[in-house]
From TrEMBL:
Domain Cytochrome c: 30-109
Pfam family, one: Cytochrome_CBB3
UniProt-recorded name of the protein: C-type cytochrome
Coiled coil regions, renumbered to chain: none
Signal peptide residue numbers: 1-25
Listed InterPro entries: Cyt_c-like_dom, Cyt_c-like_dom_sf, Cyt_C6
């Protein structure tokens, strides 16, 4: 009986692992159009045209993003979520909106702002 119960519990645990969703599954496919709206409402004061009002060399232009290791959605999402002086955290925007902003920034950087 104890052996059957152990096998049953093991089967339930394995089923749970197989059926669980990845951690990022809650983040929808990034929408750069929504990202543009969020960017305009929250970021444009310091980043108009892909520039950086407070730290001029650290723009959102492709060359600068690549130079500073920021030319990826993951890096931009981390920066926007956590902040880094002098930029504050924008975690209040939520994971989906931040992913949208990252998609927008990368799209604009590729196009040359």
């Amino acid at each position: 009986m104890k052996k059957i119960l152990s096998i049953l519990l093991l089967a339930v645990a394995c089923f749970g692992l197989v059926m669980s969703r990845p951690a990022l599954a809650d983040v929808a496919t990034p929408d750069p159009v929504n990202g543009g709206r969020i960017f305009t409402a929250n970021c444009v004061a310091c980043h108009q045209g892909g520039n950086n009002l407070l730290m001029a060399p650290k723009t959102l232009k492709k060359e600068a993003l690549e130079q500073y290791g920021m030319f990826s959605a993951e890096a931009i999402i981390a920066q926007v979520t956590k902040g880094k002086m002098p930029m504050p955290s924008f975690a209040r925007l939520g994971a989906n909106n931040i992913a949208d902003v990252a998609a927008y920034v990368l799209q604009k950087a590729e196009a040359g702002w």
